[in-house]
TrEMBL record:
Gene Ontology BP terms: autophagosome maturation
One GO CC term on file: cytoplasm
Alphabetical list of CDD domains matching this protein: DSRM_SF (cd00048)
InterPro entries associated with the record: Autophagy-related_EPG5 (IPR051436), LIX1 (IPR029270)
Protein name: Protein limb expression 1 homolog
Amino acid sequence: MDRTLESLQNIIAQVLPHRDPALVFKDLNVVVILQEFWESKQKQKAVFPSEGTVVYESLNSPGPPFVSYVTLPGGSCFGNFQSCSSRAEARRDAAKVALINSLFNELPCRRITKEFIMESVREAVSSTSGNLKDADDPSTSIGAYHYMLESNIGKTMLEFQELMIVFQLLHWNGSLKALRETKCSRQEVISYYSQYSLDEKMRSHMALDWIMKEQESTGIISQELQLSLRELEEARKAGQELRFYKEKKEILSLALTHLYSDQVTTYSNNGDQMYLTLNGSHSLAALK
């Protein structure tokens, strides 16, 4: 633990030389420090391709406890895990969690190397009762994971996580299963979606999928949304990274908005075919 703290303090000294490393986590201006950290990374050009700013979001609440989220460049999201009596306190707590994770991401052990890949594959095999031989077969889950890691050597875990979130959502959404049924190889799917970042177009497409599911099973969106809200709350209180849960909530909320608004238009020739237009959606047909 002492070595880890020393490593984090060394990173602070390198990225924020005007700050006292011993006082950073005690500083009430941790919101400012987090912003300075990512601005410094931007100047060093050691930032994510989908560059953005540090963004805060506070949930509407008539009183405590208050909840605040902070989204970092690249999309990683963190929230306050303590019970906060003010919005300012919630924002500071969320910023502290995000800063700690940002600093950890700079450690050498958080960068994808050959050694890191081998250890990660072994852990994946152990947790799934798979076989190490599967790592050389991209048609297997272990092989696909190995392929993705190999394709991202040199990146940090937060950078890799940005890509993984896309595939987690596609799995949750049912899109990966649908693609397998069209005989698309895992390499084709990975190569195709590796070119995309999670943006409004992709969210709109996933929302469209859930609207279609609602036509087959009324109430499924509301049920899934309630589950996602519970998962998001539990993950926040545990101090975990939140983007997967938060994106599910956003996609499902978007689906409900379009489902019950005038933006959805239904055309039917035979009573069971529906076409829905969502702004900026793109098709999976490119992979079929």
